[in-house]
Amino acid sequence: MKVIMEADGGSRGNPGPAGFGCVVWADDHATVLAEHCQAIGIATNNVAEYRGLIAGLEEARRLGADAVDVRMDSKLVVEQMSGRWKVKHPGMAELHQQARALASTFDAVTFGWIPRERNKHADRLANEAMDAAAAGGAPVPAAADAVTEVRLAADPPPSAVAVPPATWTGNRGGPTRLLLLRHGQTDLSRHRRYSGRGNPELTEIGRGQAADAARYLSSRGGISAVISSPLERAYDTAAAAAGALGLPVAVDDDLIETDFGDWEGLTFTEAAQRDPDLHGRWLRDTGIRPPAGESFDEVAHRVRRARDRLIADHGATTVLVVSHVTPIKSLLRMALDAGPSVLYRMHLDLASLSIAEFYPDAGASVRLVNETSYLRG
User: Which listed residue (35, 58, 149, 257) is catalytic?
Assistant: First the structure.
């Protein structure tokens, strides 16, 4: 479903009493599907404009839209979101990253500038919110979670932060901290066979590894959500940790392992003997696919989508992500802003833990790679 989203924000005093409004229209621009406005206290015009954009994208996502035509009378927001203008003000970087992460959860988002007279509906809603802010009244009840997420990014709850942010890097705001746990042992991994979309269960050793990781993570604390690949070996590893933490497991299909195609179940040597030229090129080029399989570049594309959803949905909290070698390496590569060769040079043991942090200003850092000291066997 494609929708049109219009948003506006303003401040009486800049900074001063501020508020935003947003409206989601059907694609014919005749039927209002949702509208929302909120007073946000004392803020600048630009902050209010971004807050309106974020709330509007949340409304579109709540409605199940997969494509959004964003229209705003803020030239600054439209040009920055379109990538034509840089985000120079530090205070805008966090909101810009929040909006980018939300936008990435749709199949398509376009940004267009419209004059104020063509943005009357959202302008009226924003003025209602500013009236409430000026009167010191309570904000208009929000249907979107974006307001909460922005507040979390600026002021994370103490339980969500196991270690302080890496302030020496210059990154701003609280990070989304991803604890990246590889699943435990299966029969395929025990024999070092390519294990992608096949669905082997954990071995007895693998279940023990999952239990060891669960004990360690529960003693560490501070985890607010558990997200897993849909494959059984990852889900069962995640379930062990979630049980110890008292949390549910959510599944993200984009965290599934690489599709190794016709190499599924083969050893390295068997795959190299079967397709010597292709296998050799695959080991050097992340754009090469195994026969009937998926390239590492394609994995990275969907894992980036998953990462952006995690940032948008969880803000400045700590999230346990249980997945596989390639998705975890891809997330670490993104945090390092490294070239493709790093995928071939990192080693991740079964049930190992790595930690990557992604900041609202688009900065990132890697805290840990391949920790296994908690495993007993």
Answer: 257
% of the chain with per-residue pLDDT over 90:
67
Distance CA 37, CA 124 (A): 9
Establish whether 149 is a catalytic residue: no
| 366 phi and psi angles, rounded to 5 deg | -110, 125
Domains of the chain: 2-154 (3.30.420.10), 158-371 (3.40.50.1240)
Total-model pTM? 0.58
Residues 6+ apart with CB under 8 A from 315: 148, 149, 150, 152, 153, 156, 174, 176
Catalytic residue, from 183, 279, 314, 324: name it.
183
Asked whether the beta carbons of 73 and 119 are under 8 A apart, the reply is: yes
CA–CA dist 237, 215 (Å, integer)? 12
Would you call 257 a catalytic residue per the annotation?
A: yes
Here the tokens at position 164 are 């302080």
- Cα separation, 367 vs 350, in Å, equals 19
